[in-house]
Write a structure and sequence with these properties.
This protein is mainly α. The chain has seven helices and two strands, in the order ααααααββα.
Length: 173
């Protein structure tokens, strides 16, 4: 049998038995899924250094593409999901900074509690411009709790950075 005849035979066989072949592949894939997962976990554990180097190099090579994907995923989220992500990031920062107290702080509750007023400039804050400001910054040992958080414009909060020189915030203590 020549190569062309084998190719023609294989094509004809696959076209005639397509469903049967796909069913067999699905059946085999179910059994192998857990096996492959375990195999990959073992490999990653044994070769963690090389895997990390490869992943970092991949991220470096594809930085723009990965950032665009992340922006697209984030743009699809609604305001409530974005607020949850923001709170998650703040809690994570607090844990990393070894804050003495880390509790769930909801920007929605702070928004209502502070009556839509920025604690730094004393002006009204739109919901989309709202951010949580730590009165005593996490870096300086402040806690991530309702007691230490206040409402602020994102721009005011960025301007403040880790400064604690805002006497208008002391009324909150």
């Amino acid at each position: 049998m020549t190569t062309e005849t084998k190719t023609a035979y294989n094509k004809a066989y696959h076209l005639a038995n397509r469903e049967k072949i796909l069913a067999r592949k699905r059946k085999n894939a179910k059994g192998k899924k857990e096996h492959n997962r375990l195999r990959m976990r073992t490999y990653r554990t044994k070769n963690s250094k090389q895997v990390r180097l490869y992943e970092n190099a991949y991220r470096e090579r594809n930085r723009e593409y990965l950032n665009a994907q992340q922006r697209a995923r984030y743009a699809k989220k609604d305001e409530e999901e974005k607020a949850k992500l923001h709170v998650h990031r703040l809690r994570r920062r607090a844990r990393i900074a070894h804050a003495p107290v880390v509790e769930r702080v909801s920007i929605t509750i702070i928004y209502k509690r502070d009556q839509h007023i920025c604690s730094l400039c004393q002006k009204t804050v739109k919901r989309k411009d709202a951010s949580i400001d730590h009165i005593v910054p996490l870096v300086d040992g402040g806690e991530h709790s309702f007691r230490n958080c206040a409402l602020a414009h994102r721009s005011c909060n960025v301007r403040k950075r880790t400064s604690t020189r805002f006497p208008q915030q002391l009324r909150l203590f």
